[in-house]
Amino acid sequence: MPRFFYSLLLYVLLPLLAIKLCVRSMKQRGYRPYWRERFGCYDLPRQRPVIWLHCVSVGETRAAAPLVTALLAAYPQHSILLTHGSASGRATSEQLFGERVQRAYLAYDLPFAVKRFLKHFQPDLGVLMETELWFNLLAACQQQGIPMLLANARLSEKSAAGYAKLGKLARDGLQSLSLIAAQTSQDAARFQQLGARQVATLGQLKFDVLAPSDAKAQGQHLRSLFGTARPVFLAASTRDGEEALILDAIAQANVAGLLTVIVPRHPQRFELVAALLKKRALVYEKRSQLNQPVSSHCQVILGDSMGELFSYYASADLCLVGGSLLPYGGQNLIEPMRMGKAVLIGEHSYNFSEVAATAVAKCAAWRVSSPAEIAQALQALFSHPEQGHAMGAQGLALCEAAQGATQRTLAFIASRLKRPNE
Fold first, then answer.
1. Do both 183 and 67 map to the same domain?
2. Does the pTM of the predicted model rise above 0.90?
3. Could you tell me if 238 and 287 lie in one domain?
4. What residues are paired with 199 via a beta bridge?
């Protein structure tokens, strides 16, 4: 009965979903050719047995990369299908895997659309990344005997409180999963409190994500354009409202010759950030137009490119991870630590709460809560570069010690999925 009312609500909202999809298609071309997929209509052929992973956006797609690579090697007779909920997630999939995988948008969680999706692809097994709980989808997979894994699963206190209000709807959904592979013991406990039964703490997949083989070389090239003698501060994956705080901070820091590189999280905000830089009367250049070394007068580089984040990290002396200065939950601080960089994070890092707490405790990250504190950190770390180097070494050691979640997750998949010739 709870799922009946959930579905009824979705049907009531269906016109709004269509309008939202139409607006998105006008703003981002990546939606336009595939809008029918959101309603369960697919042209993509099913030629082999399918292992399906749902990675809603960029972060989930990057986190799944080690698992996808392992599945491609372990199950060559299967097709690996990646479904997404955003155009940027789909674009990231194309950059990471090219034609090695199939990709599509996941249908909306409407009963008819879910039925079409499963009938078309007939997956042997499904993997949902992090906290993607779609109750009609889970129920349909359970009815059809499709094993479902919630991988790299995380659940903040705030999200847990929200799911708790759904009562039986959330409990039934969680109990339909074959396994919830939680990132931490705290995540596991929250899932169990909501009624989940099959829960194991397998660790954080993002610790297994390695930088592209050419990231350091590309980073050195970027640094040659930025200026090897200048201090370079990278503000990565910034969200709406954070760029203004960062610009306030660098004005207060007054570090001689400082070049700040700002890489917004979402490409649709590139021009908005450019407008902010113009309003502040700052001398800036766009990465997309950078073909020669920047002038000594350049103050900011706008990172308006996709797929270069590891290279940006490699080029910088000090990195701030966005989404954490304002209450967005924080973006992935593991990536700059993997590159051996000193890391600044804000107070709002609940998406990576345990990683952030450990990094701060081990002096691999420095937590800041205001432009004044960012400025203080910049002055300290650029005045004493040996401190930044020590932070970077601690972060790299932390990443290396925490690896292994991919193989643990793969072992569970192997227990539920036989190769076609077996």
1. yes
2. no
3. yes
4. 180
